[in-house]
């Protein structure tokens, strides 16, 4: 898009007025990336004067386009408007005038998706669901950093001209539903006066009336923030149950609009209402395909032909946020040598990406973490029976089923099915595996340090409850990481003392502790 095309759109949107000469020059220079001081110097004006002209310009455009326009986002706004019509078409002015009159948009916290890679299949499916199948509720699900928000942003840009009203909001800070509903109802009623509903139920009814009267698209991001932590994923936090009522009514009542939501967890509403041929659909967002992941890495300075590039993408399962973080590490520490990076460690988790997984892990109950630790110790897909054998008798089959279902809903574990036996097995993605091993070793080390200080065997925690070795598997990675964690520290004598103390207890109490300590002593001695 050129600056001349942008100005043509502005001329149509501002009719019967138009930009004055100074405003147009400020716009042209801003388009070229100039700051206010640079524009002032070029035009021979005072910098403060140009800054004020800029403020007036963005306010004028905000009123014309009915959304917040700033120096930071004005190109994105104009690209959206240009996508609604062909600016080279002879009928462009008429079309743009109609759009300016009939379309109401508030993009809120929508991302800039001018740089976007892949997701063609996902975009095609979502567009069909919303524009052809007329789905009333669509959920994009997946762990943090996968690009759900960017995917929704690209989709919304592509289908915006199918809707009279479009509004984008985030519930990141878990606002009361009444505030969100008030905001939505005010937006949809901007051309008419309505009485303010007094209850949440009446607010939802008012919203549904707008969704029936007009073709509307509501985008709500960060839905997981109104869901509670703990064993059972998908249920609402105390005081936020009305969010579920909103979804239920939007999904079940007749209207011509769509609610698109993004979440790291699948809510119980979506789980129960969604279906392949129903007006509620859910899409599990996964990593980028290798070809698209390579395009992403090109922006980080790679050529696309480096040795180890395919292995790097596979290690991180095409996870966009992880690849961006690791690409920076490879460029800054290894001078862009991917093979050298992989040779140092099969998998590295940067601080930024670790923080993303922290947010998921913090929502788990103690039982959820216990299951994650057993999956990390196994280091490979394991069956329900295997996990049950490790947790019995303290955890029932129904409790284990509930936890596994919640971990799947939270996008933390992967389920595989044996083609021959049709038996399901569960495992962790490599990056989640690495993180969970690190958490396990840190927690176990803290338990050992606590026992060394208090001499209280009851504090052994993970060392008692989880086996580092069994008949099927020895997780050498965990033993190696433990050795690295305690390297240079005097731990051999305290561990031997623990062994002596444990001899006084029955197996029912010490469980895996004795065998684990013998393993750790062997690793320390090595």
TrEMBL record:
Question: What region holds the vWA-MoxR associated protein N-terminal HTH domain?
Answer: 1-80
Q: Where is the NB-ARC domain?
A: 121-226
Note the PANTHER family from the entry: PLANT BROAD-SPECTRUM MILDEW RESISTANCE PROTEIN RPW8, TIR-NBS TYPE DISEASE RESISTANCE PROTEIN-RELATED
**Protein name, please?**
NB-ARC domain-containing protein
Q: What is the lineage of its organism?
A: Bacteria, Bacillati, Cyanobacteriota, Cyanophyceae, Oscillatoriophycideae
């Amino acid at each position: 898009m050129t600056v001349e095309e942008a100005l043509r759109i502005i001329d149509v949107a501002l009719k019967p007025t138009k930009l004055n000469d100074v405003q147009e020059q400020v716009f042209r220079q801003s388009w070229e990336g100039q700051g206010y001081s640079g524009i002032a110097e070029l035009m021979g004006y005072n910098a403060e004067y140009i800054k004020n002209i800029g403020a007036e310009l963005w306010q004028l455009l905000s009123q014309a386009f009915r959304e917040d326009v700033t120096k930071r986002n004005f190109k994105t706004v104009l690209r959206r408007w240009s996508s609604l019509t062909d600016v080279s078409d002879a009928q462009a002015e008429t079309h743009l005038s109609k759009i300016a009159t009939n379309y109401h948009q508030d993009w809120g916290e929508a991302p800039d998706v001018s740089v976007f890679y892949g997701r063609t299949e996902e975009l095609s499916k979502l567009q069909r669901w919303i524009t052809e199948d007329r789905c009333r509720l669509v959920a994009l699900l997946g762990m943090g950093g996968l690009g759900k928000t960017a995917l929704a942003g690209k989709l919304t840009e592509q289908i915006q001209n199918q809707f009279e009203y479009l509004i984008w909001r985030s519930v990141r800070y878990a606002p009361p539903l009444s505030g969100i509903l008030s905001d939505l109802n005010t937006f949809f009623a901007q051309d008419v006066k309505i009485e303010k509903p007094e209850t949440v139920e009446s607010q939802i009814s008012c919203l549904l009336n707008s969704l029936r009267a007009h073709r509307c698209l509501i985008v709500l991001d960060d839905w997981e923030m109104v869901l509670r932590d703990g064993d059972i994923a998908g249920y609402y936090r105390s005081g936020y149950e009305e969010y579920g009522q909103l979804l239920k009514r939007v999904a079940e009542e007749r209207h011509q609009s769509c609610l698109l939501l993004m979440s790291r967890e699948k809510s119980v509403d979506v789980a129960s209402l969604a279906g392949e041929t129903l007006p509620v659909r859910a899409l599990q967002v996964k990593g980028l395909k290798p070809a698209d992941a390579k395009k992403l890495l090109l922006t980080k300075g790679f050529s696309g032909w480096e040795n180890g590039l395919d292995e790097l993408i596979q290690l991180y399962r095409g996870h966009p946020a992880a690849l961006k973080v690791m690409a920076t590490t490879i460029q800054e520490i290894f001078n862009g040598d991917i093979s050298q990076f992989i040779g140092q460690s099969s998998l590295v988790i940067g601080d930024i990406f670790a923080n993303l997984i922290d947010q998921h892990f913090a929502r788990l109950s103690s039982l959820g973490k216990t299951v994650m630790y057993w999956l990390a110790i196994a280091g490979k897909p394991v069956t329900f029976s295997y996990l049950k054998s490790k947790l019995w008798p303290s955890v029932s089959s129904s409790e284990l089923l509930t936890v596994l279902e919640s971990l799947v809903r939270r996008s933390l574990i992967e389920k595989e099915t044996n083609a021959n036996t049709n038996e399901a097995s569960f495992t962790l993605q490599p990056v989640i595996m690495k993180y969970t091993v690190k958490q396990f070793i840190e927690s176990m080390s803290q338990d050992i340090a606590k026992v060394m200080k208090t001499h209280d065997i009851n504090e052994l925690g993970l060392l008692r409850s989880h086996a580092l070795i069994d008949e099927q598997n020895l997780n050498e990675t965990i033993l190696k990481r433990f050795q690295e964690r305690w390297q240079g520290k005097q731990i051999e004598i305290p561990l031997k003392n623990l062994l002596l103390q444990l001899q006084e207890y029955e197996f029912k109490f010490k469980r895996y502790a004795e065998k684990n300590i013998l393993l750790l002593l062997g690793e320390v001695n090595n």
